[in-house]
Hints:
Elements: E1 10-14, H1 18-29, E2 33-38, E3 51-54, H2 60-68, E4 72-75, H3 82-89, H4 98-104, H5 107-116, E5 124-127, H6 130-140, E6 144-148, E7 158-161, H7 167-174, E8 178-182, E9 188-196, E10 202-213, E11 216-222, H8 228-245, E12 249-257, E13 263-269, H9 279-282, H10 287-295, E14 309-315, H11 326-330, E15 335-339, E16 350-357, H12 361-375, H13 381-384
Parallel strand pairs: 1-2, 1-4, 2-3
Antiparallel strand pairs: 5-8, 6-7, 6-8, 9-10, 9-12, 10-11, 11-14, 12-13, 14-16, 15-16
Helix pairs in contact: 1-10, 2-3
The structure holds adenosine monophosphate (AMP).
Amino acid sequence: MSxxxxxxxxxxxxGGGQLGRMLTLAARRMGYRVHVFSPDTDxxxxxxxxxxxxxxxxxxxxxxxFARSVDVVTLEFENIPSETVEELSSLVPVRPGPRALRxxxxxxxxxxxxxxxxxxxxxxxGVPDRASLDxxxxxxxxxxxxxxxxxxxxxxxxxxxxxxxxxxAAWETLGDEAVLEAWVDFELELSxxxxxxxxxxFAHYGAVRNTHDRHILDxxxxxxxxxxxVEDEAVRITAGIFEELDVVGTAxxxxxVTGRGELLVNEVAPRPHNxxxxxxxxxxxxxxxxxxxxxxxxxxxxxxxxxxxxxxxLLGDLWTNGEPDWPAALAVPGASLHLYGKKEPRPGxxxxxxxxxxxxxxxxxxxxLKARGALIGTQGPAAGS
Length: 385
Ligand code: AMP
């Protein structure tokens, strides 16, 4: 490529979900055109794009046509078949690029990469078949978690193992190539969302603190409140991983923090992340604009956070008793609402999120829980976690 892709260029996005939607909105605001490629039609991202290509990810003919219609391809969903990525890459730049994608598409490959490159991870062992599971339990110890090696996110495809006797049942549940990981008795969970430009520049949003419910992200608070030494180390590890994987774009590293302040990398997502949604209102440049800037070869934007912020996910469960009370939530000072335009509010499905800023992280968290609680007519904090 001879220079940066300027406004007017067409960005191709693989995946039609909310991450693609927020990227598309950021790109269109800056004068770019966006084509979304996903197996669905009328998808959250496709609906706000200039063009939606509805085809399965393994439809190479459609992928070729899509590639010819755009200037660069990026993604909001990493589990794209490698043949498709190769085909696209032969026609147009694909960012974050093959190394980041290939490594993060498979949990075992990702963990082996992290351990091999000297990044801290919990003890683990690959489990290609049932026969290997007993030896893995022996080596890793219990309690442990058995996770599918491929295509897992939000706690999908994982099951706990408390004693060696659980092996049969655990293998029955997953029944596929897996990774056995030691259970981490963590004190808290952090993530670092950051971006790496085409020129290798790096910009991060600091460490944020995440809490999960049923393995799905529930709440993010920025800043995390961990000692500066722990935060600096998390950022240093993140920058190192981005460098090794040659990331171009926005990506995220999730960490466990143990009671002794030790960091362990849990997962790497090669795209914007749910724990970075607060940056839309809370940072000088959102994680989505940052992705756009990076993949277009533009300078990265500032990541300054004027004040603390918190984000709470809105899952389909909130619709159980009918339409949530939007005016009540919006009456909470500083609350911003994002809905992704998904038609069916299924339990556990991410339908939207709310963000609030406040003078302290604690106040931001309280506001966000109050806003979410108001949606279903409860007082907030007690109902939120
Ligand atoms: P994952 O899909 O692997 O990111 O897991 C989702 C969530 O499950 C994590 O954010 C943790 O809250 C929990 N979890 C996953 N692996 C472990 C582990 N080895 N030890 C303790 N909790 C875990």
